[in-house]
Design a protein that fits this description.
single chain; alpha+beta; Ubiquitin-like (UB roll); Fumarate Reductase Iron-sulfur Protein, Chain B, domain 2; about 35% helix; binds iron/sulfur cluster; binds FE2/S2 (inorganic) cluster
Length: about 260
């Protein structure tokens, strides 16, 4: 690195504006932090530096910053937050690609636990409601499972990449307390498990769980979810496929009464 570039790098700084909140019910406020620029720094590495030395831009010591993160490689789904107003993963958000000051806020549709950490348990409750799993009927050797064709595997794999980050729910106009809508991630998991040769034995229960209030009919098909998904999951295809299955199931159930 030549001397001019080295000098420029040593004087460059990055400015963060972070929305803070001490506890679930308390008043939110903003604080600014300035960090020396480093090559390849991302939002999570910056938050680590701020948490290790919680001093504001004005030089005032403050409380350590709280945020969720784990894998640091867009796999665990825990670091979702609003970065410059957009729901995305903090560990894959490179500082050099962001406009400054970089505004960090907690996801807006989930209860704040503290600072940037939110309670996303609603997704896990929704997944429980649709039985997003394949049940085991024992721990003994059941032999080889049913074989899946290459085509089935290729269709299922993208759906299995969901990291439960909740970005799709954050951006969905229908995901709110009035509708109680389960959101795109849950619907897509229904498609994944219903198309699995073993999982499909609970297909009826899963489709029934998506009928009625908060079910799939709440979706307005605005497609914000598919744009926001960091794992490129074909959410709108899942919504239309599962919607069709729910409709077929409802008609069949009606005539069986
Ligand atoms: S298509 Fe629109 S309304 Fe439906 S889940 Fe996605 S964002 Fe929400
Ligand atoms: S579907 Fe995509 S956006 Fe939604 S929770 Fe899964 S990974 Fe996140
Ligand atoms: S830290 Fe795991 S997805 Fe960002």
């Amino acid at each position: 690195m030549n001397r001019e570039l080295r000098t420029e790098n040593s004087t460059r700084t990055v400015l963060f504006k972070i929305k803070r909140q001490a506890s679930p019910g308390s008043q939110a406020y903003w604080e600014e932090f300035e960090l020396p620029w480093k090559r390849h720094m991302n939002v999570i590495s910056s938050l680590m530096d701020i948490a290790a030395n919680p001093v504001t831009r004005e030089g005032k010591p403050t409380t350590p910053l709280t945020y969720d993160s784990n894998c640091l490689e867009e796999v665990c789904g825990s670091c979702a937050m609003l970065i410059n107003g957009r729901a995305r993963m903090a560990c894959s958000a490179l500082v050099d690609n962001l406009e400054q000051p970089i505004r960090l806020e907690p996801l807006s549709k989930f209860p704040v636990v503290r600072d940037l950490a939110v309670d996303r348990s609603v997704l896990f409750e929704n997944l429980k409601a649709v039985k997003a799993w394949i049940p085991l009927d024992g721990t003994y050797d059941l032999g080889a499972g049913p074989r899946m064709s290459q085509k089935q595997q290729e269709e299922a794999y993208p759906l299995s990449r969901c990291i439960s980050c909740c970005c799709c729910m954050e951006v969905c106009p229908q995901f709110n307390e009035h509708t109680g809508f389960v959101g795109a991630a849950t619907i897509s998991q229904v498609r994944l498990f219903n198309t699995h040769p073993t999982g499909e034995m609970m297909k009826h229960e899963r489709l029934t769980a998506l009928m009625g209030d908060g079910g799939i009919q709440e979706c307005g098909y605005a497609q914000n979810c598919v744009e926001a998904c960091p794992k490129d999951i074909p959410l709108t295809r899942s919504i239309s496929d599962v919607g069709r299955e729910v409709m077929k199931q409802a008609v069949t159930d009606f005539f069986r009464r």
